[in-house]
Amino acid sequence: AQKITQTQPGMFVQEKEAVTLDCTYDTSDPSYGLFWYKQPSSGEMIFLIYQGSYDQQNATEGRYSLNFQKARKSANLVISASQLGDSAMYFCAMREGSISSGSARQLTFGSGTQLTVLP
Amino acid sequence: DVKVTQSSRYLVKRTGEKVFLECVQDMDHENMFWYRQDPGLGLRLIYFSYDVKMKEKGDIPEGYSVSREKKERFSLILESASTNQTSMYLCASKRMGQGHQPQHFGDGTRLSIL
User: Fold this and answer.
1) Is B100 close to A102, i.e. CB distance below 8 A?
2) What would the DSSP string read from start to end of A50-101?
3) Minimal C-alpha gap between A71 and chain B (Å)
4) DSSP conformational letter for B103
5) Is B85 left (phi over 0), alpha (psi -120 to 50) or beta?
6) Which of A23, B50, B52, B76 could form a disulfide with A92 if both were Cys (CB 3.0 to 4.6 A apart)?
7) Where is average pLDDT lowest: A7-16, B46-55, B90-99, B101-110?
8) Which of B42, B92, B106 comes nearest A111 by C-beta?
9) Neighbour tally for A98: CB within 10 Å
10) pLDDT for A79-90, tens place per residue?
11) With an 8 Å Cβ cutoff, are A104 and B48 in contact?
12) How far, in Å, CA of A68 to CA of B114, rounded?
């Protein structure tokens, strides 16, 4: 089974509107973390936001927020007031295991969602 | 700011060649990672390293090896390049034990094997 599923290969949104990018995950580990990255066409991976499995509140970072529904195992990214510069590929990723572990704790990535912001 | 530098943005090699992709980070991070990115598949982990001279296989290690002789440098080696290794390769690093901190990525190397 896929550990991270992003079901929207492509999304379009009008400038200044909000958009939600879906991410569902699968793990039996009670301790995990979820990350969202943005990858513009230039290729670099830009970290956006993090949600830990024990965090009581949904993470927010400027125009980015995370709609974390633990029981549904979903961690959707919400971008408010979309801008043309938000056009990019967006990846959801999961780290399994405790944050204090000394091991590398690799990330598992979804297949990504290509977001296009229309003027 | 963390800086992860990959030696080449674009690289073209021939089948059968031995190919070296270099990655250097400047933040004294213990953990380093090599991924390949293919359309529709996201990023897949090839190898990672806990610390100097330590390495672990990721999900798709076949056809690759790695070297970590110094803490700041993590090299990916294609022993005998094949056309199915044409891909985008991304290197990342992070500090050990801080699972809430993100991995920091380089700009990627677009490798073409002819």
Assistant:
1) no
2) EEETT-SS--EETTEEEEEETTTTEEEEEE-S--GGG-EEEEEEEEES-TT-
3) 21
4) P
5) alpha
6) A23
7) B90-99
8) B42
9) 18
10) 999 999 999 999
11) yes
12) 44
